[in-house]
Amino acid sequence: MSTVPLRVAVVCASNQNRSTEAHYFLSKRGFSVRSFGTGTHVKLPGPTPDQPNVYDFQTTYDQMYNDLVSKDRDLYTQNGMLHMLERNKRIKPRPERFQNCQDVFDLIVTCEESVYDQVVEDMNSREQVTCQPVHVINVDIEDNDEEATVGAILICKLCQCIQHTEDMEDELDELLQEFEEKSGRPFLHTVCFY
């Protein structure tokens, strides 16, 4: 069992809901964690499905919050966007894009298969320098408040179990199989290298 906390990245599309909820849970339990999105822009629900609010990754959560308040406080209070942005502001200043990060992680957890594909593609396109392995795991989490919390708890339990393994390389596949059976959710897993 390692006494050094796992270095974990949690990734969803816009670094708003699922990844930041998991970031919050993991940081409270002592993990070295960062959260990211993989999209080209940050998208939040708008007044209609075909009118999302679109921001770049340099826009702070505070700026997004103020923008939504100025557009329609009632709507964005009712749909939970203001509450989510309040939480996000307590975790970090702004969303971050995974493809722009050069930090090294032991584990990258994605929240949907398309994000997993983007992370694996990005990792495989990078020049391998140290050949240090990083495990990339996907668990599909629906993008809503309730599922984000359920998914964050599941990711946290998974990270805690991985942290307590004697040999992550040997035990991870079996551990993921157990989590699939317990949660009823399929997990994808691959190894990439730095």
Automatic annotation (TrEMBL):
Keywords: Hydrolase, mRNA processing, Nucleus, Protein phosphatase. Pfam families: Ssu72. It catalyses: O-phospho-L-seryl-[protein] + H2O = L-seryl-[protein] + phosphate; O-phospho-L-threonyl-[protein] + H2O = L-threonyl-[protein] + phosphate. Signal peptide: none annotated. It is an enzyme of class 3 (hydrolase). InterPro entries: RNA_pol_II_suA. It is found in: Nucleus. Its main location: nucleus. Its EC number is 3.1.3.16. Belongs to the SSU72 phosphatase family. Protein phosphatase that catalyzes the dephosphorylation of the C-terminal domain of RNA polymerase II. Plays a role in RNA processing and termination. This is RNA polymerase II subunit A C-terminal domain phosphatase SSU72. It comes from Acinonyx jubatus. The gene is LOC106985281.
